[in-house]
């Protein structure tokens, strides 16, 4: 251990010797000037992005401008009306941020009124008012190419400032989720300073440098090569919306781009990082062994934070091979979830048999309450009726990793289900074979043949690296072992073109993203309506990459559209959606996208934890991370 730490220290010293400015050469950049700031007042955060391509650009309202999304700008300086945390929240997941209270719709959801907080100041002393909100919407509607131009233009008939603290929207059509455009999960429509941008001739060419802040921090300095940004707490932080949750602990916050996950580990071991966005599974296991003060979301194995996204097998339903649900179910029953967990995450996966990511409040709202229904669920194979669900899969994975990780693995059954998932579908090769035979497939030797006599074969597009690549590889292997010729293909364009254009047969990716901290499914579900289904070869509206349609799904979506966001009926509709997804198996849910975020308690305490206080997502580039800063207290260690 002493030798290892010496090597780590020498690596850091070597990088520091380059100086405080990035070299611009390929490889890791030099660290920011950390020693210039009191360490007990400074929080150092890993920015998971590559260095910004246009570091001095802070105008995030212009699409494709090269500005960074994870450098602290929208986390610390920008603000909007509401936040919905993917986890439990400080006092519930829904935050009234710049808004003084929840959205107010008329009866048919064609109008929305927002009442704003009073006394909120921009960092230059100008008061935040309704004029800023109106200007933000009208400017983007009038300026194609701005980030929220299209959704505002599609939805807004007019917007007006009723008075300094009241905004009224008239919508082009009923929309009970219009407020979602101003509701941050990762980001949302940030409010522009009217008094700044109204004086600009071309808002798309304006770099907004230095940015005028509506949040508790202002820009201190940044690396011209984009590797680091430093933010300083405003003296008048109490004139920002975050003040309702207390004073942010750090006086300074440094965001560092460190592309190498190995170097992130090195920097945390040496006390030069307090929060890491993501490590590999192996990197996380190594970190907790090397550093007594470092940990992940869970106190022990599996460490990682389950994000509100659901990695899955996505079938292209416009491909004839996957249009029979018996085929999709057969492919599901050929899989061994335990092996998938071990191959992708080395066992640190949070599995989900249903089409809801097992994160935030979802286990309480969906996975737990639906266990009895899943256990009793029956599937007709064409030869017999089976019960395909195994509620003990999560417990089995925990037992599999316990010999290696020992006491790090929880033993309490509820804690295991929270960390590893509840259950999954049994690997039942006999039932899978029966389903394929019932669908008209035949087996010649060890090769399944389609009803038209062709080999059952296809390519499975997957990520180029990481846990999803590993997941895709093992799934392709499991299918191939059962007589289906499946080749896993690393696809660098999987989200850019393959999924949107339907240029794939099946893929491991995700088409389900949720709020996480709220049971409402509108974050992804509306775009699954058949009205948005593209013809083969045409670009599909996000996020129905599977191009699946069902009149029962449309009915659920149409009722969601007419149901207020906080109405308990939304949870009932969510349960109806889950049951439909189980019956039809249009995609095969696998697990949440677990992120090996880490934090160090050497200098700061108060971070959210899975077991005691899961108030926020600890992934550092999400804008809700600002709430973490209000809970941090220095340890006073020098």
UniProtKB/TrEMBL annotation:
UniProt keywords, alphabetically: Signal
Similarity comment: Belongs to the bacterial solute-binding protein 5 family.
Annotated CDD domains: PBP2_TmCBP_oligosaccharides_like
InterPro entries referenced in this protein's UniProt entry, alphabetically: Peptide/Ni-bd, SBP_5, SBP_5_dom
UniProt-annotated location(s): Periplasm
Protein name: Peptide ABC transporter substrate-binding protein
Keyword Signal assigned: yes
Keyword Lyase: no
Residue spans crossing the bilayer: none
Signal sequence region: 1-24
